[in-house]
Design brief:
Shape: elongated
Radius of gyration: 30 Å
Oligomer: single chain
Low-confidence stretches: none
Number of strands: 12
Largest sheet: 4 strands, mixed
Order of helices and strands: HHEEEEEEEHEEEHHHHEEHH
Structural class: alpha+beta
Helix content: 25-40%
Strand content: 15-25%
Distance between the termini: 92 Å
Strand order of the largest sheet: 7-6-9-10
Length: 283
C-alpha cells in the first residue's frame, strides 16, 4: 500500500496555525552544516603514522638532534620504490648527520615523515604496481650515531662488525631517555640560583688537548687532520652549548671552519685565525 504525503505548504490546518503564530512561509529549507575537521593532537600523530614534512620544517637542536614543532623527532623516507620485487628499506635519522647534509646539498630529498615512536617500527609505502602500506622495523642511521657519539660510536675507528652490533642493539627507549621527546614541557634542571655559570672548567686546556690527540687531531665533519703546527685551527666544540658539560658525547673536534658553521657560532668567521685557515686550505 502506498501513501502520498500532502503538500504541507497548502495544508489549511497548518496555514491557520502559522497565521496565528505570525510565522512566515518558507518554501525551501537548506540544512547549512559546517563540519569541523578533527585536529588530532601532534603528539598522537607523531606516535602513530607520523607527519608528512618538508625538510625546511625541521629545525636542528644545539645537540644536533632533529626538532619539529617543539618535539624531538625521527626522520625517514616513507615512500619506497620496489624494483624487480626488491625493496631497500631506508634508515631513520635522529640528527642532522652527514647523510642528510649530503642529500640536502644534492637536492635529493624524497618524501620525509617525522615520528617519535620508540618501538623502532615505522609505516612505509612500498611503491610497485600498486601501493602497499606496511609497518616495518627500520635500522638507525650510522652517521647519526656517529654525530652524537652514541655509546662511543665512531665511524672511522670502529670495525664494521662492532658498528653493526651497536646498530642492532640501538634502543629508541634509551635514546629518548637521554634526549627527551618533548622540548616544550621539559623542566630545566637548574633554577637561577643553582645553575652553574656557563664557562669553561679549570682543566679545559688540558682536557681539550687530550681529546684532540685521542681523536687523531681530525675534524669530525670535514675529516681534515691538523698537526701540532696548526693546532690553533682545531677546536673542541660543546654540542649543547654548555661549556661546563665535558661529557664525551657533548664534545666534537672541529676545524675552525666547520666550527663556524655550527648554530650560533657565526662570530668565529670574523676571527683572524678563521681567515688564515681558509687561505691555507682554500676551503
Amino acid at each position: 500500500m502506498n501513501f502520498k504525503l500532502p503538500n504541507f505548504l497548502n495544508w489549511e490546518l497548518l496555514n491557520t496555525l502559522r497565521h496565528e503564530m505570525s510565522a512566515p512561509l518558507t518554501e525551501s529549507f537548506v540544512l547549512d552544516v559546517h563540519f569541523k575537521q578533527i585536529d588530532i593532537p601532534i603528539v598522537e600523530r607523531l606516535r602513530n603514522a607520523g607527519i608528512d614534512v618538508n625538510i625546511d620544517d625541521i629545525k636542528i637542536h644545539d645537540d644536533g638532534t632533529l626538532i619539529y614543532n617543539g618535539f624531538r623527532v625521527l626522520l625517514y623516507i616513507r615512500d619506497i620504490s620496489s624494483i624487480a620485487g626488491q625493496t631497500r628499506m631506508p634508515k631513520y635519522h635522529f640528527s642532522y648527520c652527514k647523510a642528510l647534509e649530503t642529500m640536502q646539498k644534492n637536492s635529493r630529498f624524497g618524501r620525509y615523515v617525522v615520528a617519535n615512536r620508540d618501538s623502532g617500527e615505522f609505516q612505509v609505502n612500498v611503491m610497485d604496481s600498486n601501493i602497499k602500506t606496511q609497518t616495518v622495523r627500520l635500522n638507525v642511521c650510522q652517521n647519526c650515531l656517529d654525530t652524537i657519539r652514541w655509546k662511543g660510536f665512531d665511524m672511522q675507528k670502529m670495525a664494521r662488525p662492532m658498528r653493526l652490533n651497536i646498530v642492532s642493539h640501538f634502543s629508541l627507549l634509551d635514546f629518548f631517555r637521554e634526549y627527551p621527546r618533548d622540548l616544550v614541557n621539559v623542566k630545566p634542571i637548574h633554577t637561577s640560583d643553582t645553575a652553574p655559570v656557563n664557562t669553561y672548567t679549570d682543566d679545559w686546556a688540558k682536557l681539550s688537548r687530550t681529546i684532540k690527540l685521542a681523536r687523531g687531531q681530525q675534524c669530525k665533519t670535514c675529516r681534515i687532520v691538523l698537526q701540532d703546527s696548526e693546532s690553533k685551527y682545531l677546536h673542541l666544540h660543546h654540542r649543547n652549548g654548555l661549556k661546563y658539560d665535558n661529557s664525551e658525547a657533548n664534545l666534537d673536534v672541529l676545524c675552525i671552519a666547520c666550527h663556524a658553521e655550527q648554530p650560533m657560532h657565526g662570530h668565529i668567521k670574523v676571527l683572524p685565525d678563521y681567515k688564515e685557515f681558509l687561505a691555507r686550505h682554500q676551503c
